[in-house]
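Continuing from the previous page...

OK, I double-checked the sequence for Delta(14)-sterol reductase against my notes and this is the correct one:
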Amino acid sequence: MAIDGLEYEFGGPIGALGVTLGTPFVTYALYFTCNEGGCPNPALLSDPIGHFKTEVWPGWSGLFSSKVTAYYAAYWFGLVALQYILPGKTVLGTVLKDGTRLKYKLNGFESFMLVLSYCGAMTYMEGFDWWLWAFIWDNFLQLITGTLLFAIAMSVYCYTSSFFTGEPLATNTGNILYDWFIGRPLNPRIHNLDLKSFCELRPGMIMWPILNFAFLAHQYNTHGYVSDSMLLVNVFQFWYVFDALYNEPAVLTTMDITTDGFGFMLAFGDLCWVPLTYCLQARYLASHPVDLGYLGLAGVLAVQGAGYYIFRNANSTKNSFRTNPKDPKVKDIKYIETKSGSKLMVSGWWGVSRHINYLGDWIMAWAWCLPTGFGTPITYFYVAYFAVLLLHRERRDEAKCKAKYGEDWKRYTEIVKYRIIPGIY
Ligand code: NDP
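Thanks. Re-ran it with the corrected sequence; updated C-alpha cells here:
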C-alpha cells in the first residue's frame, strides 16, 4: 500500500520493473529500427538477428560516449545556472498537506529564449553547417545513454536523500524498487532548486525542439531542401514547447507536481523519453523527406488547429478557474461545491467530458505524425503510446479524485458522464 491508502500503481513492483526496463529498451529500439537505412530497414525484416549483429549494433562501447555525456552535463548544469541567474517571478505552489505552499522561481521561458537565441545566432552566422547540428545527428544513440544515466543518477539521489531530509513523501511502501521508480519524495530540492519542476519543463522540453532543428538541418544538408512536412513537425512541436514554457505556472497544478513523487519514472520521462522519442517524426523525415502539398498541409493544419483549440482552452479554463475564479473568462462557468472546499466545473469544456484536455492533446498527436505520410507505421508510435498514457492517466486521476471527493465525485460523474471522448468513452 502507498501512503494515503492508495493501492500500488503501474502494476506494483513487477510493473515498475517492466517499465524501468521496457521504456529505455523502446527508446533504443526506435533508433535501431527507424534510421537512415529505413524505417524499418528491409534487411532488418528479412534477417533480423544477422542484420542487427553485423550492420546495426554498434557494440557496447558504441552506446556510450564520455564526451557526449559531458556535453549533456554542461547543458544541464548550464540550465541550472540560468535558473539562478535569470530574473523570474516567484509563484506559490498549491497548498501542501501541512498547509504550507512552496515557492517556485519561474524563468523557464526566459531560459528557453536565451538558449534559442544562442542557437539561432550561431546558425545565422554559420548556417546549417554549425557543428552542433551534425553533432546531434551523429551522436543520437550516445545522447540516449547520457540522458538515461542522468535519470538514474537523479532518481537514486532523490530516493536516498529522502531518508535523511525529513521532506514530505509521495510514496512510502517500503518496496525499494517500487518507491525508487514511482518517487519517494514529493518535492525534492537541493538548496532552492526544485528538481521535479526543473526537470519537468527544462532540460528535456528545451532539448526537444533543438533536436528537431538538428534533423531539419540534416535534411537540408543531405537533400538540399527542407520539406513542408519537416517544417510542420518543427513548428507544431516548437509551439507545444513554447506554449508549455510560456504557461509555466500551469505546471504547478498538474498531477505530476501536486501528487506524484520524483523517481525514475518522471526523471526518465522528462530527461530521456520526451525529447528522444517525441522527436521521432523529425528524425525520420531528416532522411526520408515527405512532400505534403497544399492539400496535405491544409489537412494537417486543420487537425492541429482543432486539437490545440480544445487542449489550450480546456487547460486555461481550469487554471483560471482554480487560480483566479473572478477572471471574466470563467465567471459564468457552472460548478458544484464539494465538501473538500474545492469546486468542480460542470459546464464549458469541463462539462463536455471529464478530461476533454486529453482529447485535444491526442488530436494534436495525430497532426505530429501525419506529416510523415503512410510509408511506415513506426512514426505513428507516438499516437499509440500517447493513447495508452492518457487512458492510464485518466484512470489514475479518476481514482485520486474519487478518494479525494467521495460522494461529491459520484455526483459530478452523474452530471459529466464521459471520461474523455464525449458520447463515446
Ligand atoms: P488535468 O490538467 O486534467 O488535471 C486533473 C485535475 O484537475 C484533477 O485531479 C482535479 O484536481 C482537477 N479537476 C478535475 N475535474 C475538474 C473540474 N471539473 N473542475 C475543476 N477541476 C477539476 O491533469 P494532467 O496533469 O493529467 O494534464 C494536464 C495536461 O498535460 C493535459 O492537457 C495533458 O494532456 C497534458 N499531458 C501531456 C503529457 C505529454 O507527455 N505530452 C503527459 C501528461 C499530461 P483537484 O484535486 O485539484 O480537484
